[in-house]
Amino acid sequence: MIHDVIIAGSGPAGSIAAYLLARAGLDVLLLEKESLPRYKACGGGLPRKAQALIPFSVTLALEFQSAGGVVAYDGKSVFRTRTLKPYAALVMRDKFDHYLVRKAEAEGAIVRDVCRVTGVELLSEGVRVRSSQGEDQARVLVGADGINSVVAHLTGIIGKRRAGSALEAEVTVPLAALEDQGTYATFDFGAISHGYGWIFPKADHFSVGIFNASDAKEPQLRKILERYLERQPHIASYEIQRIRGHRIPLGGAKEVLHLGGRVMVAGDAANMADPFLGEGIHYALWSGTIAAETILAQWNHATLDFEAYTRRIWEEILPHFQYSQRIANVMYRHPKLATNMLHRSKRMQDVMFGVISGEHTYRDLYRAITWEAPLLLGEVIFKPYRGGGI
Ligand SMILES: Cc1cc2nc3c(=O)[nH]c(=O)nc-3n(C[C@H](O)[C@H](O)[C@H](O)COP(=O)(O)OP(=O)(O)OC[C@H]3O[C@@H](n4cnc5c(N)ncnc54)[C@H](O)[C@@H]3O)c2cc1C
């Protein structure tokens, strides 16, 4: 059978594209290598700007919303802030991703799990996709199969990647620790050099992790995570349920993300994660949406051409990554100084959490830093922060 579109990978990028295309009446086949619902190592921080991209309510798939953030340095809280509206939700990825898949299915997408894509053959019209369950053909293939994308690799769309890495522990803690943390998400810029540690509360446990924002491999990541856990004053005893990690692409390079009018890649497969926080769900949803919109805009053309997809990604998403990289350069070169300056500027704190919610952009944050930094630097030099802040 020849489908209209085959999508490889049922993460946020693949499932949002499947949902939008199926809703528009296209015959969509979504292939997923794991058995669904599948576990995904992830902090599960779902920014408000990401929720805004989803054309249906996901309330049922959220653990809760967070309107509080703690910025820390090496286990010590530097400041605590609240936002007027929640800036992010916390999710468990098995539940959240499966919710999106089921929505796509309800619109008519065919979902085939335990089905690993292994081969891609370009035909004069369309593509043939080989998988662990046989062969299928379609007019278009979307590779949304994550950072180790087989589609990107086999078609040569993405060459060498810049990627950081993250390691996450799902940690059972005493109830008192959960109550202590409340709905605050913690970001600790002294937990690792060139990255940060996080504590994200979930309904009955914590997600505690370390993001290494450098392209260089960090062989000590597990040790750093354990040390980070041990330095949490409010987590006196804890039990690690599981530790899992993965690479996270560091977006920002200008790459062509399509092959003629037959193949495109989206989400992590297309390096769509921000290089400062390693946040990728929002950009997976965004690029998956642009992929679907590009296909739909051209569907009645005799010949398809996805140049518009790459162009829109360059115009709409890449500038965010470029500013995000500048923020990373400042924060990770001088993390102590940078958190110290953040501590002194309520405006910079608001803009930083506004970037996560979507009220501000990384460009705004970069401007706030360059505008306020000279003044703050003077303050920091003459009145250095000595810890124990909140
Ligand atoms: C430890 C960690 C913590 C993170 N925390 C956050 C966070 O808090 N907030 C945030 O926004 N981002 C976070 N990220 C990044 C985020 O998880 C990714 O950017 C996001 O999942 C990308 O979505 P995606 O749909 O592109 O790919 P994925 O979610 O990776 O989905 C790809 C899917 O493709 C499937 N697949 C792979 N190969 C094949 C194949 N050959 N055939 C068929 N299917 C295949 C996979 O099984 C998977 O289901 C984190 C990442 C890590 C590693």
What does this protein look like?
The chain has 11 helices and 18 strands. It has 390 residues and is an alpha/beta fold. It folds into 3 domains: 2-68 and 94-161 and 251-322, FAD/NAD(P)-binding domain, CATH 3.50.50; 163-249, D-Amino Acid Oxidase, subunit A, domain 2 (D-Amino Acid Oxidase, Chain A, domain 2), CATH 3.30.9.10; 331-382, no CATH class. Strands 1, 2, 8, 9, 10, 11, 17 and 18 form an 8-stranded mixed sheet that branches. The chain has a 7-stranded mixed sheet with strand order 6-5-13-14-15-12-16, sandwiched between helices. A 3-stranded antiparallel sheet has the order 3-7-4. Bound molecules: flavin-adenine dinucleotide. Flavin-adenine dinucleotide is lined by residues 8-14, 31-34, 38, 40-45, 116-117, 144-146, 150, 166, 168, 209, 245-246, 248, 267-269, 273, 278-282, 284.
